Amino acid sequence: MTHLPNSLQARDIAHVLHPYTNLVKHEKAGPLVIERGKGIYVYDDSGKEYIEGMAGLWCAGLGFDEPALVDAAVEQMRKLPFYHTFGHKSAGPVIDLAEKLKSLSPVPVSKVFFVNSGSEANDTQMKFIWYYNNAIGRPKKKTILSRQRGYHGVTIASGSLTGLPANHRAFDLPIAGVKHVDCPHYYRNAEPGESEAEYTARLARNLDEFIQREGPDTVAAFFAEPVLGAGGVIVPPAGYYPAMQAVLRKYDILSVSDEVICGFGRTGNVWGSQTLDYQPDLISCAKQLSSAYLPIAACLISEPVYEAIRDQSGTIGTFGHGFTYGGHPVSAAVALRTLQIYEERNIYAHVAAVAPHFQARLRRLADHPLVGEARGVGLIGAVELVANKTTRQNFDPAKAVGATCAAFAQEEGLIQRSLAGDALAFCPPMIITESEIDEMFDRFERALARTEAWISAEGLRPAA
Ligand SMILES: Cc1ncc(COP(=O)(O)O)c(C=O)c1O
Q1: What is the pTM of this model?
Q2: Mutational pocket test of ligand 1: of 114, 119, 124, the residue with most ligand atoms within 8 Å of the beta carbon
């Protein structure tokens, strides 16, 4: 596609390096420039309307034009546009937000440490865990476990926790000391005839054996998203977390719930770990914490971890970690207002009320000849496109079937993400109504029909 000289598209190609983008293709295709938002909708620079079926990047829970958040930002900007929390300094919104997060936490929390992104939160948790084990005299207990297809960010540490090849390949990741265990995807990974309970028991056994091989005194922590998001929206089978946690507790291994997507209502409870029956020691959260209107993320840490860190910092003379913008007062004021709005407007109850309709429309897609599995919980879900429903064979990744379906969806006025394995994700703003859910799936069904027609025309289905 050629773009007019000096158009936003041409200037973007000339000047912007895009994350998670095929940069070769981008030089031809250029960007979709989004200009404004309203509720669950965004509008491009030609005025075309789209349902934001991903709430941006699983984050704009209150949609795209919430004036109360703008007011909270402006008010705090006028009062104190920046301050920090280094060296015994603080600011009111940071204190209020820490207190609020502790009151919302599903497990006892001692302190809240603020950062700017999900990646920084998980990176920081790893440092806390290493510092903690050094402080309590366990210098060998350092290996961190996460899962294949888990997503925890892109910094050197959090990108190592992430279990997706595209985040490792050519980046020299993962670093030593991070190891990946089974992805709990029953549809893809269960043995023929294996029940969910048997599958779960096998994963727990595998974890136990893995820890035994590594040496229990070398394994420090296990990171998990309650529902794996960017890895394909994978909901582990019932009983999975209790079984995994029993193994972790046996070896005194800390568990970290990465609530960056699931936190603040997405799965129908405040926390994904509540929905999935998981009681972590530490929690990372971000995204819907401020409905993504400003960057802010947090690490919620337990009393034993805090006490060890406190004592070690006393011995060393300081706790040598922190980000300039961690606990930014404007971000904290917006986050606090966001959490208040979730409660004032009953957003958590709203998600629980509309989720059955969302899940029913999602699961109806399982009857489509292209859909191998339709899966999800609360207001998050995905459909996995397959070449053969019986054998569950995937399409050749080079054919980019998922990306093509997402491109058709975009033409139909729906923004979606195509994830690894041709999974198309749905994670709309939590304010979505039942009729908007219908409109979203209607648009997707049209995109799916066009994908089916394209697959037939291109002869992309392997011969049975
Ligand atoms: C579960 C999870 N953890 C961490 C991250 C990384 O967050 P960020 O992109 O803010 O660094 C993400 C981002 O999508 C995520 O989904």
Answers
A1: 0.97
A2: 119
